[in-house]
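TA notes, week 10

Several of you asked for a full example with nothing omitted. So below is the full record: structure tokens for the whole chain, then the designed sequence directly under it. When grading your own attempts, check the secondary structure regions first.
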């Protein structure tokens, strides 16, 4: 019996392995296309990745798992941050990126579970691959891509699929359901859907875990301080927000017409869809409504291709998944919806995601010389560098890099000329006293005559300036500039380090 069944199992495993390899290859190529280059991981650290998750693990250790942020636990991101401590600092972007990458892989896995097998394994696999590919290519500005901070939005898609189709997921998936339920607010949002499906199908295992996670998250939500803004009272702003959602934030008239047609076709197709798939759309609506509520003081300022893109990604992805699943059933109105969806996707297809470099690799090199270093992360926001704190007990002597800061104008100093030839980075460190908070900039003139600058925000008083930047192989001239200071700045212990 075992001998007869084993080849069949082995063959099925090989086919599934091929499907996963194809999907991962396509996903990798898609990310390269969306960013316009292959070296996108090194600059992928983002915002809360540093001060919340990296620093949180450093300060709290295992206790960080039950430390809320923005009113919720984020256990998934905390677990990845804990695992990242096993690797050197230089590997941090790659470990955090792996944490994000696992999220869309889980979406693909969940879709594979619910796609109806119609006699053709290739069609079944293609349905899942196409669905996730379209999710990744939805109109978006890239905010929820690559970063551990925003992995929760992709995990939410997998959770929605599991809540809507509990019969497709066995009890072995419950630890995963629990982990996602304790990551962000989505267990609260999807618990009613899971309850409804559980009631219909008499399958309570997913609901019970999601409900438990929701109770925990509600507790932290109620006991954590959160800013409560007043809702915008202008109805036109709410209508503008809805129109932005329906048109994917795109200004083209052709795309607007196609987008409205897409939502109309999707709505009509709901009348012929089964309840489980309708509930995917319900989850999409719930997430968008929750996003609007969270930014109720200015609902019209968010856009899927601008500020607040994270509030759209789950809703669009679940709508796309629903349409693709209906297309597999050869539902004509769903096929029309898919054709219309091609217009907004094509409009943004060749618009690469912007990616801001804060010179992470150069700061890692600087860490060898500084016992206490803060590394800035994107996005660059005046007054907030999203600092990632690094502490070293053993550092190299940097006294050989000491330079004289020569004043050249008010609060601007020339540090070095034609320095760091052959290296790909420079770091400037200094002790300073400034009267007002503000930006401190290191400006450099490269050998080709072009001027560049790297900036960081510092408070008033005594500060330790730490600014690193990348450069071409040639030598550079380096200046240190203190912005918006009305009185002279005291500068001492200046070093221009060529790591």
């Amino acid at each position: 019996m075992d001998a007869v069944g084993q080849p069949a199992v082995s063959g099925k495993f090989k086919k599934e392995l091929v499907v996963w390899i194809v999907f991962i290859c396509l996903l990798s190529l898609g990310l390269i296309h969306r960013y316009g280059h292959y070296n996108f991981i090194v600059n992928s650290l983002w915002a809360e990745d540093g001060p919340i998750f990296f620093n949180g693990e450093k300060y709290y250790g295992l206790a960080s798992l039950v430390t809320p942020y923005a009113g919720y636990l984020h256990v998934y991101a905390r677990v990845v941050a804990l695992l990242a401590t096993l690797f050197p600092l230089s590997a941090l972007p790659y470990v955090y990126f792996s944490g994000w990458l696992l999220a869309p892989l889980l979406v693909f896995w969940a879709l594979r579970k619910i796609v109806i097998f119609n006699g053709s394994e290739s069609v079944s696999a293609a349905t899942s691959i196409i669905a996730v590919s379209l999710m990744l290519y939805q109109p978006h500005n890239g905010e929820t891509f690559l970063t551990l901070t925003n992995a929760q939005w992709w995990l939410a898609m997998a959770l929605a699929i599991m809540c809507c189709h509990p019969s497709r997921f066995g009890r072995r998936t419950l630890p995963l359901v629990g982990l996602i339920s304790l990551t962000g607010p989505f267990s609260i949002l999807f618990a009613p859907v899971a309850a409804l499906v559980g009631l219909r199908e008499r399958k309570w295992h997913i609901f019970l875990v999601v409900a438990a996670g929701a109770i925990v998250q509600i507790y932290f939500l109620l006991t954590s301080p959160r800013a409560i803004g007043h809702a915008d009272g202008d109805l036109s702003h709410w209508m503008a927000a809805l129109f932005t959602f329906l048109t994917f934030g795109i200004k083209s008239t052709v795309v607007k017409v196609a987008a409205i047609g897409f939502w109309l076709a999707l709505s009509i197709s709901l009348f012929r869809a089964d309840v489980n798939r309708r509930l995917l759309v319900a989850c999409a609506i719930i997430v968008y409504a929750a996003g609007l509520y969270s930014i109720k003081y200015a609902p019209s300022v968010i856009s899927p291709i601008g500020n607040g893109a994270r509030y759209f990604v789950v809703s669009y992805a679940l709508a796309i998944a629903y349409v693709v699943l209906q297309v597999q059933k050869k539902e004509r109105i769903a096929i029309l919806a898919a054709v219309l969806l091609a217009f907004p996707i094509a409009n943004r297809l060749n618009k690469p995601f912007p990616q801001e470099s804060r010179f992470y690799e150069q700061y890692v090199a600087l860490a060898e010389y500084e016992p206490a270093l803060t590394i800035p992360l994107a996005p660059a926001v005046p007054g907030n560098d999203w600092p990632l704190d690094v502490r070293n007990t053993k550092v190299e002597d940097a006294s050989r890099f000491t330079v004289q800061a020569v004043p050249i104008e008010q609060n601007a100093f020339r540090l070095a000329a034609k320095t760091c030839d052959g290296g790909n980075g420079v770091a400037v460190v200094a002790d300073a006293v400034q009267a007002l908070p503000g930006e401190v900039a290191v400006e450099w003139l490269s050998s080709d005559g072009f001027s560049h600058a790297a900036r960081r925000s510092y408070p008033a008083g005594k500060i330790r300036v730490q600014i690193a930047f990348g450069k071409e192989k040639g030598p550079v001239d380096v200046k240190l500039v203190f912005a918006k200071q009305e009185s002279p700045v005291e500068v001492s212990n200046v070093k221009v380090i060529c790591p």
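Residues 11-348 form one domain. Use that as a sanity check on your answer.
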